[in-house]
Amino acid sequence: MASDPIRLLSPSGELIESEANAAWLPVVAELSEAQLMDFHRQMAVIRRFDVEAGNLQRQGQLALWIPSLGQEAAQVGSGIAARPQDHVFPAYREHAVARIRGVDPMRIIELLRGLDHGGWDPKAHGNFHLYTLVIGSQTLHATGYAMGIAFDGPGGDPERDEAVLVYFGDGATSQGDVSESLVFAASYQTPQVFFLQNNHWAISVPVSTQSRTPLYRRALGFGIPSIQIDGNDVLAAYAVTRTALDEARGGKGPRFVEALTYRMGAHTSSDDPSKYRDEAELEHWIAHDPIVRFEAFLRARGASDAFFAEVHEEAEELAADVRRRTVALVPPPVTKIFDHVYTDPHPDIEEQRAWLLAYEASFGGQA
Amino acid sequence: MASDPIRLLSPSGELIESEANAAWLPVVAELSEAQLMDFHRQMAVIRRFDVEAGNLQRQGQLALWIPSLGQEAAQVGSGIAARPQDHVFPAYREHAVARIRGVDPMRIIELLRGLDHGGWDPKAHGNFHLYTLVIGSQTLHATGYAMGIAFDGPGGDPERDEAVLVYFGDGATSQGDVSESLVFAASYQTPQVFFLQNNHWAISVPVSTQSRTPLYRRALGFGIPSIQIDGNDVLAAYAVTRTALDEARGGKGPRFVEALTYRMGAHTSSDDPSKYRDEAELEHWIAHDPIVRFEAFLRARGASDAFFAEVHEEAEELAADVRRRTVALVPPPVTKIFDHVYTDPHPDIEEQRAWLLAYEASFGGQA
Amino acid sequence: MTPENQAGGLGTSASPAIDLRDPASGGPEDGSSPRGVQTLTMARALNEGLRAALGADDRVLLMGEDIGTLGGVFRVTEGLKAEFGDRRVLDTPLAESGLVGTAIGLAMRGFRPVVEIQFDGFVYPAFDQITSQLAKQTYRHAGSQAFPVVIRIPYGGHIGAVEHHQESPEAYFAHTPGLRVVSPATPHDAYWMIQEAIAGNDPVVFLEPKSRYWPKGEVDLDRAGAGLHESRIVRRGADVTLIGHGAMVATLLDAAELAEQEGTSAEVVDLRSLSPIDYGPILDSVRRTGRAVVVQEAPQRVSVGSEIAATIAERAFYSLQSPVLRVSGYDTPFPPAKLEGVYLPDADRILEAVDRALAY
Amino acid sequence: MTPENQAGGLGTSASPAIDLRDPASGGPEDGSSPRGVQTLTMARALNEGLRAALGADDRVLLMGEDIGTLGGVFRVTEGLKAEFGDRRVLDTPLAESGLVGTAIGLAMRGFRPVVEIQFDGFVYPAFDQITSQLAKQTYRHAGSQAFPVVIRIPYGGHIGAVEHHQESPEAYFAHTPGLRVVSPATPHDAYWMIQEAIAGNDPVVFLEPKSRYWPKGEVDLDRAGAGLHESRIVRRGADVTLIGHGAMVATLLDAAELAEQEGTSAEVVDLRSLSPIDYGPILDSVRRTGRAVVVQEAPQRVSVGSEIAATIAERAFYSLQSPVLRVSGYDTPFPPAKLEGVYLPDADRILEAVDRALAY
Ligand SMILES: Cc1ncc(C[n+]2csc(CCOP(=O)(O)OP(=O)(O)O)c2C)c(N)n1
Ligand SMILES: Cc1ncc(C[n+]2csc(CCOP(=O)(O)OP(=O)(O)O)c2C)c(N)n1
Ligand SMILES: [Mg+2]
Ligand SMILES: [Mg+2]
Predict the structure, then answer these.
(1) B206, B215, B242, C98, C307 from B170: Cα distances, Å
(2) What is the second-level CATH architecture of the domain C35-220?
(3) Residues with CB under 6 A from ligand 1
(4) CB contact set of A348 (below 8 Å; sequence gap of 6+)
(5) Complex ipTM more than 0.95, yes or no
(6) Do the domains D35-220 and D232-359 sit in the same CATH topology, yes or no?
(7) Under CATH, to which class is C232-359 assigned?
(8) Which of A66, A135, C150, D105 is placed for a possible disulfide with C114 were both Cys, Cβ 3.0 to 4.6 Å?
(9) What is the pLDDT of residues D94-138, one digit of tens each?
């Protein structure tokens, strides 16, 4: 049962055309050059965004920043693997996936500036659901959604059948909710892929505290087929997630993917990783940078300096645009407090809203 | 991984001296004739008690009865396997284990008559902890207790090192708490055996709704060694639990045992199993009655009619005694409501107790 | 008053004389042909209400433990799986957080899940999903989608059951913004309120007073008579206002009857909704009577009764001739069943409070 | 008053002038040699209190997420793992129900676990273990063993954080029989109350006002001055009684200062304990002032503020010259951080209520 994680690209960026990879190589082979280049574009642009947002936080523009540095391959590979009709349930670090699904990164900025709790409409944003901060709770929402797909009837057409992709971390695997979502998913044979980004840390707690056995095995105990991949290999992330989603859709039941990756930055801008982890560990992972690896792969296939320069340009533009738009953000109106607490009218809310308005008015022009 | 459940006694009561059983047969071989006869005694007596309690419930003497009919081998084998220093955490159906550990069956009667919520002192009753009605919650208490044993230091002497034995059902495996207890147990490598009685039903819901893969595999996914046994074979239940507990004590980490058994009666006296299960299924399991099987084994070894008659006598006496003592039970004093809400004095409780006493007194002699 | 003689009092008010229908009204509210008045138990009325909701909207789903084949441990969902199939009436795995969490996901897909929690005391494993997820989803989504999830909870005492089977958890939910909390006292309200709860677009915690499942009452199948969140004066009186919900309404009516015999005229308000609370009829009544007693089975500290007492004292300040008194369960865990008669408010304890109020 | 100018108000009352020591008293309560008064942040005072508790009793254990190597996300447990080892200070797996559930088991073994919940909004997954298990264990065991488990929860707003990081969940726990609930407002109380909570024999929910972690205050290391469950009048006044706990105490003192400038003399009560509530000083004060305003960050419906308002209105009925008013968070989920200044009660909103009370 303990086998090596699936890896299609060696750390130095060569395609590994081994027997063991026979199932996945054809999936990669179907990708056009433009698609492969897009993998790089997505990774590089989101990393630049990440850096910019970190800067904005340090400059007091954001209450908090949650870096995704180092996890770009796991996120971009799996995010691109999802088909348009699929529904994606993130945790809170999946900025790359958000962008791939069509969420304006400013929505994440607004959330972490303290302007809203998310608030985008998943249906209008690539079926990308809201960030969820209570660890693990989104896995049940994802499973419920996938139950709904199953109840709405089997399909038969992979181009149209829907599936669900849900993200969570190594720390989250300890939460009861995550286990219960595996129970429900197995029981209802939901069209769903559980995508675990094992970035080796839950804030300061190493994954060894959460589990002494590889986490992909967790799902096997619930009767869910499971596989471990090198999460810093964007091609493995793509091929395995693509296959798993297509296997899951149309009633064949859930799948589980554990992507081994690393959070190269702090947990959040409030965190100081030097308190709990070695320089050496970080060095190791810096040497396994997912973007560097894939760039080597692309260069070996002949991608030009011009391409990388163009991506660099695009990333810089996004960063500048995000900065411009962030500093221009205005605080929400005070009565936003009362908006959408309920969908139907509610007397307590109306009364309190009216009170606040009258109170604010009592300060005259000050309000 | 999928192997046959461990079975030492064939359905007709012959010892199966196979290669596969090589690990367990010596454990059984160590048992004296008197000990083997005690297995039967415990099973037969508790079944008689169960019948009597059911009768008492029907006659209005108990608010509820929870039968253990059919699960005697799983309970007696595992219960006798625990050493005196071990701590046992039951769910709510482990009447045989309670009795083996020295809990007067009247405590269970009192609980189900509505006189208390348990209330025995585990330390004074064979380290048998209270029945717990919120499904699965006791598994965390057991794991915490076992963490405490580990923190108190390793031992090295199996005759004195403590271990924990915790019972739960197939339905309980779906609860987040049970999964979290597996996480903590694996993380702290607790001296603990998880004993799952898979009696095939959680009230009206078949085990297939909880899991589509054998439940013993659940623990493997958490990194906990696990084994499935024929739970209607008292020798398998004994040998495997005994071994697992001895493996667990002294810091070697948790073990998991799934005992396949059957609840031959109703879920509780409030339940009507004819609403959800086949006569044929019940017939099958009646044919695999654990007491009948073990009686055949003992008879083949020469146990006498006199012995079985004596056990019958003892069971009848216990039943008569329980009936006598049940009908003699008196209602608790009204102020028992306020006893032990807190350990330290509490003003609200004192105030409300005083109020109730004054109020009762205002009715004069009536109170 | 001992536990023994208390127990006998439980069945006394099989069907309180509440007039269900607005006398000024004619046929059904929706103009369809009248179906008349039937005498049903509350369990049956809920069953009929759920059947009607399942029939009216094929996005309505029932989910829970043992609600399908068995029909629920109280038989409230009896026959519904057979009628609507196992994709509309789900026997789920045994996990309450999973139950509510997946219901949220189903609501995101456009379903209207109705979740049964088997007993009051088993709702707590789902607490995070109810209060941190379900209650906040609409807000978090800035209204881009609604979360019409109903959580049905058989609640309260009087059935002599073991621990965790007789609790009154309403305070936890009534404190939580984003939830609505209601509780019917009669078969008629049960029939209508469950349908309104399901038809609404917000999460509703629907508390069913389990000791009232079996007494029969008249159900007007043609008109609800009151909205989901309206409180109702169910007995007129002049001297004191008695306020309660669920099973306590029958107890209040018993108490009012006894008070009448002692020359005190008590008005009775059935809250029906605990969040929001409809203070119109309550304040109207207290302004007339000048005195109020709030009654509930739940522990008293930080309870719905506390909220009502505080609000009456604030809003009817000049009308009150005595403090608002509360009669509640004691601030202890729900006791062993043989003591529930002591623990739960009964007509005697209510009358004691009435006497104290009148003595001011 | 806009969110922007509100935000500036947060740091205004770094160290309210509360007299910690009983002037009538001499040296340390236990007769040991005096250690004097130090100026500490509340975070540091808690750290010292926990250190003292760990040192005093080797059955005391700290458990939580990130409390060991990291020293907690607020650094309250900084250095304690290094000092006492990883069997006394545990970095546990990420599961709150597991955390509290195993703490119960450890208490059964005779340990005194102190559990940290990382933020208020993450306590709900543990709700069943806290309210249905921990709170009821002593009762269920008929007192054969005690359950001295302390649940530390950094709670409340004012830190501009994202969803689930600024809530005030006290009502849920104060409603639950079997729990004690306390909340210090000053470094001095934090230092002493955490030790008293750990030394007591009952489960205690210990609410730490996280926005008060950093302001410094004087800590008398020799004597506590007040018991764990005593409320305290922290400012004398004649016209109105202001009541609150945690971070609101500093806000009440600010409001009282402002009121003074407008000619109103406000008395301030620091509740300190939310369950039980010590009504002695509260009623004493209200009987003198005739007016009360109860202030809290939590939503208002069915809250601790409701309980206090109801009880004052009941027990000081003849003394009240105006209704007891409540100033609370609104009955909405905690809003996005940029709106917390609008949501949370501030001195202005308290003064508005004082004016209303005085206008009666
Ligand atoms: C229920 C809950 N408990 C605690 C937290 C605080 N917290 C935020 S992130 C985090 C660690 C999560 O680790 P992991 O699941 O591995 O995800 P990662 O942050 O590494 O992506 C913790 C403990 C939380 N958000 N929710
Ligand atoms: C948290 C919780 N949810 C629901 C229930 C109601 N309930 C009591 S027993 C039971 C079934 C338990 O099944 P299983 O774990 O297989 O144990 P068994 O009764 O078969 O021994 C249920 C759903 C409960 N007691 N606790
Ligand atoms: Mg992680
Ligand atoms: Mg079972």
Answers:
(1) 9, 8, 21, 16, 42
(2) 3-Layer(aba) Sandwich (3.40)
(3) A 93, 133-135, 169-172, 199, 201-203, 263, 267; D 65, 94, 96, 118, 122, 125
(4) C276, D301, D331
(5) yes
(6) yes
(7) alpha beta
(8) C150
(9) 999 999 999 999 999 999 999 999 999 999 999 999 999 999 999
Cβ-contact A260, A228 below 8 angstroms: yes
Residue D5, pLDDT score: 31
Q: What contacts A39, CB < 8 A, 6 or more positions away?
A: A76, A77, A80, A234, A235, A238, A294
For A23, A66, A137, C25, D228, the CA distances from A4, given in Å and listed in that order, are 15, 30, 30, 75, 57
Sign of the Cα torsion C128, D166, A360, C277 reads: positive
Least CB–CB distance from A218: residue in B177, B213, B221: B221
Gap between the Cα atoms of C212 and C190, Å rounded: 10
For residue A140, what are its two tokens?
């049940």
Q: Which residues line ligand 2 (CB under 6 A)?
A: B 93, 133-135, 169-172, 199, 201-203, 263, 267; C 65, 94, 96, 118, 122, 125
Determine, for residues A141 and C101 on separate chains, whether the beta-carbon distance falls below 8 Å: yes
Looking at residue C27, its pLDDT comes to 58
Residues 316-345 of chain A with CB under 8 A from chain C are: 339-344
- Do residues C293 and C353 make contact, with C-beta atoms less than 8 angstroms apart? yes
- D45-94 pLDDT, tens digit per residue, is 999 999 999 999 999 999 999 999 999 999 999 999 999 999 999 999 99
**Which residues of D are part of the catalytic machinery?**
165
How does strand D204-209 pair with strand D180-182? parallel
- Find the helix or strand (DSSP H, E) in which C61 lies: strand C60-64
Strands (DSSP E) contained in B64-200 are 87-89, 164-169, 192-198
Give every strand in the sheet of C232-235, ordered side by side. Answer: C232-235, C266-270, C240-244, C292-299, C325-329
> Rounded to whole angstroms, how far apart are CA atoms D88 and D80?
9
Coil, strand, or helix at residue A215? coil
- Cα gap A289→D283, rounded to integer Å: 66
* Amino acid symbol at B160: R
Q: Is C271 exposed, middle or buried (0-12, 13-18, 19+ CB in 10 A)?
A: buried
Question: C-alpha angle with apex D108: D118 to B75, nearest 5 degrees?
Answer: 115
CA angle, residues B45, B48, B54, in degrees to nearest 5:
140
Cβ(A270)–Cβ(A257) under 8 Å? no
CA A365 to chain D, closest CA, distance in angstroms equals 9
3-state secondary structure A48-68: HHHHHHHHHHHCCCCCCCCCC
| HEC letters along C252-315 | HHHHHHHHHHCCCCEEEEECCEEECCCHHHHHHHHHHHCCEEEEEEEECCCCHHHHHHHHHHHH
Q: How far is CA B101 from the centre of its chain?
A: 10
CA of D149 to the centre of ligand 3 (A): 29
Domain edges within chain C = 35-220, 232-359
| Among protein residues, the one whose CA lies closest to atom 13 of ligand 1 | A202
CA angle, residues D215, D219, D220, in degrees to nearest 5: 170
Smallest CA–CA separation between C121 and chain B, in Å? 8
State the CATH class of domain A19-331.
Answer: alpha beta
Percent of all residues in chain C with a pLDDT value above 70, rounded to a whole number: 91
Q: C98 vs A180: CB contact, 8 Å cut-off? A: yes
Structural tokens at position C118: 């088997």
Q: How far apart are CA B214 and CA B259, in angstroms?
A: 11
Whose Cα sits closest to atom 20 in ligand 1? Answer: A202
pLDDT tens digits, residue range D95-105?
A: 999 999 999 99
H/E run at residue C1: none
Which one from C165, C188, C229, C245 is the annotated catalytic residue? C165
Closest CA to A256 of A300, A197, A206: A197
CA dihedral of C50, C55, C61, C63, whole degrees rounded to 10? 40
